[in-house]
Amino acid sequence: MSIHMETLDPELGGQYRPSWFWFLGAGVALLGLGVLAFGHLIVASMISTFVIGAIMLIGGALGVAHALGIRHPDKHHFWIFSSVFYGLAGITILVEPVFGERLLTLVLAISLGLSGLSRLVVGGQLRSNSVLISGAASLMAAAAIGVDWTQDALWVIGFCIAIDLVIQGLTLLFTGIVLRLAPRPVG
């Protein structure tokens, strides 16, 4: 009985072979973070929401400071409006975290879908089954979120982040192993 090993494009595999340990290490780290997130789904969702809201608020304040420092006062009002709206979005997320989680859940669905599509393209180019599986899993997660994103917002962000971290971790882990076992480039 033989075990089918992941195959990579020989030229690319040879180029990435010296970095096999980075793939392996990042895979183990992402896998560990995914397991941690699975243990704390609601906490992971709330923390993500508050951190994003706080970052947006700080970004808005920095943008206003930048706009006020511009030496062309007749042009700075657009920068101020943009920054104020950005900061208000952050405040909205902080004050109304459930609304923020719902909004972030929708954005997460869209982002996971685009990330999955990107990995499918890369997986097809590299002829990498694990990258293709990773991309398909992200697309399935995006579809699952999109179906009922308003009702599941309290836990779905943490759940999807956990799934994606575990799958990315396994993908990088296996890719690191395959790269380690890949033949050395000739030349």
Can you describe this structure?
- The protein is mainly α and 187 residues long.
- Helices cover 82% and strands 0% of the residues.
- It has seven helices and no strands.
Helical stretch count? Answer: 7
Low-confidence sequence ranges = 1-5
**How much helical structure, as a percent, in the residues?**
over 70%
Q: How far from one another are the termini?
A: 34 Å
Q: Roughly how many Å is the radius of gyration? A: 21 Å
What's the mean pLDDT score? 82
Q: How would you characterize the largest beta sheet?
A: none
List the helices and strands and how they pair.
Layout: H1 10-16, H2 20-39, H3 41-69, H4 76-95, H5 97-126, H6 129-147, H7 153-181
